[in-house]
Amino acid sequence: MSSLSLAVRDCSTMLRRNLLHARRYPSLTLNLLLTPIMLLLLFVYIFGDTMSMGIGSGGPDRAKYIAYIVPGLLLMTIGSTVVGTAISVSNDMTEGIIARFRTMAIHRGSVIVGHVVGSVLQSIVSVVLVGAVGVAIGFRSTDATVLEWFAAFGLLVLFSLSLTWIAVGMGLISPNAEAASNNAMPLILLPLLSSAFVPLHSMPGWFQPIAQYQPFTPAIETLRGLLLGTGIGNNAWLAIAWSLGLTVLGYFWSKAKFNQDPQR
Predict the structure, then answer these.
(1) What is Dmax (Cα atoms) for the chain?
(2) pLDDT at residue 19 above 70?
């Protein structure tokens, strides 16, 4: 077999390993998935009427707020899911399995590739589940074309890939699972500081730059535009730039940390 074939085989094996872990120990994924679902139900049914008056003209309109909030919650779902990746990577690094893998005749990067691909697949499944909850409570995207749906799916996959690489790096630098969870917490908090729940113009002036100049806001506005037909402007290019930049940063960061000689 060629070197490429061997690398693909090893990466596939590590991917199956991570998917089996996710299937056998689903509690972590389910706990992280509950966060966006609970926020969706909370903001729609408790705050929906009040919040809807702040995103447009007219009186309370819960259906309008469902349409506004779902794109942001889909991206928040990705941030929540990849926290589990950071924890899983940290567990691998601290429980001795990586030391054993280093002594075996396998492709060195297959362990990380397995985590990344497995995490992206889990993120997409989680997004589908949260999207299904959104549809069940009234979310509709009737104006989106087939091309826009494909573009929205591509954006979700690319954004998931970028956050996954960052989460892998966070897991590699964490001494234990608790530290990995804390280090990855910004991936859950940043959507709360974006345009996911309220428009930028409704925020205090001093806070608007914090919400605007971060990766989640342009991605949310792009996804919202694709699904709901709102204006996208330059947010699409910003979302792609953020995603590619974070992917490259996370890849080289993770590669450098993983290739270091183990300190423990």
Answers:
(1) 67
(2) yes
